[in-house]
Amino acid sequence: MSEPPDVPATVAAQPPMERLTKRQRHGADCLYCAVTLRPGDVVDLGGREAEDGTVWSPRAHPRCVKGARDDERAG
Ligand SMILES: [Zn+2]
After folding, report:
1. Beta carbons of 47 and 41 less than 8 angstroms apart
2. In degrees rounded to 5, what are phi and psi of residue 61?
3. 54 C-alpha vs ligand 1 centroid, how far in Å?
4. Higher pLDDT, 24 or 8
5. Model pTM above 0.90
6. Rounded to the nearest whole angstrom, what is the distance from the C-alpha of residue 28 to the centroid of ligand 1?
7. Rg over CA atoms, the chain
8. 10 Å Cβ neighbour count for 74?
9. How far is the CA of 31 from the centre of ligand 1 (A)?
10. Distance CA 47, CA 51 (A)
11. φ, ψ of residue 24 in degrees (nearest 5)
């Protein structure tokens, strides 16, 4: 299975901005688990605008994105 996962550009269950580290906001660490991302194991979640107008570009592990989506479906 080398195909990239089918991940939408928007992620429903995003952690609150105030809880994110600077590295998470910059896409250096996973948006969900805060572990440093490595090439080949990254999903670019796309640029987005924060409430204060700041544009940021979160990234995450494919499995973490899938987990967040599964959580939302579950409950
Ligand atoms: Zn992760």
Report:
1. no
2. -70, 140
3. 23
4. 24
5. no
6. 11
7. 12
8. 6
9. 7
10. 13
11. -65, -40
